[in-house]
């Protein structure tokens, strides 16, 4: 997907997180090597962060608070349930959609095309 749409402006940003049953215990360098070697990941891979709780990274505070995870009544955002949650953000920085970890990236092609090819 990244190779196909990067010329149209798609950026995939990966943020490893060890908050989900300690599935990312390695160092940043080990995680990057794993992603590059096993999955041929060519997109930016950031340092390990927290996505939930008091120490949640600002990026994820923004994403959660500006997506369907946000509850206007309670003024709180639900937590990311598991690794590989996905957000689509438009060129202006607006969160367009949130997709739970079970959504296969292949199923996001139409949504990606709407943001990159228009």
Tell me what you see in this structure:
The protein is an alpha+beta fold and 118 residues long. The protein has 4 helices and 4 strands, in the order αααββββα. Strands 1-2 form a two-stranded antiparallel ribbon. A hairpin with a 5-residue loop joins β3 and β4 (95-99). The chain is globular, with a radius of gyration of 15 Å.
Mean pLDDT: 94
Structure class:
alpha+beta
Number of structurally distinct domains = 1
Overall CATH class = Alpha Beta
> Order of helices and strands, N to C?
HHHEEEEH
Helix content: 25-40%
Shape descriptor reads: globular
List the helices and strands and how they pair.
Elements: H1 2-5, H2 28-39, H3 58-65, E1 70-71, E2 76-77, E3 86-89, E4 95-99, H4 109-116
Antiparallel strand pairs: 1-2, 3-4
In short:
By secondary structure, the chain is of the alpha+beta class.
Keywords, separated by commas or semicolons:
4 strands, two-stranded antiparallel ribbon, 4 helices, 118 residues, alpha+beta, single chain, globular
């Amino acid at each position: 997907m990244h190779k196909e749409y990067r010329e149209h402006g798609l950026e995939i940003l990966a943020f490893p997180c060890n908050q989900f049953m300690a599935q990312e215990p390695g160092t940043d360098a080990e995680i990057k090597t794993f992603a590059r070697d096993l999955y041929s990941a060519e997109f930016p891979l950031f340092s390990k962060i927290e996505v939930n709780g008091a120490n949640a990274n600002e990026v994820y505070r923004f994403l959660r608070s500006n997506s369907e995870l946000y509850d206007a009544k309670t003024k709180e955002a639900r937590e990311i349930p598991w690794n590989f949650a996905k957000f689509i953000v438009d060129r202006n920085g607006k969160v367009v959609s949130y997709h739970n970890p079970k959504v296969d990236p292949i199923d996001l092609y139409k949504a990606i095309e709407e943001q990159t090819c228009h």
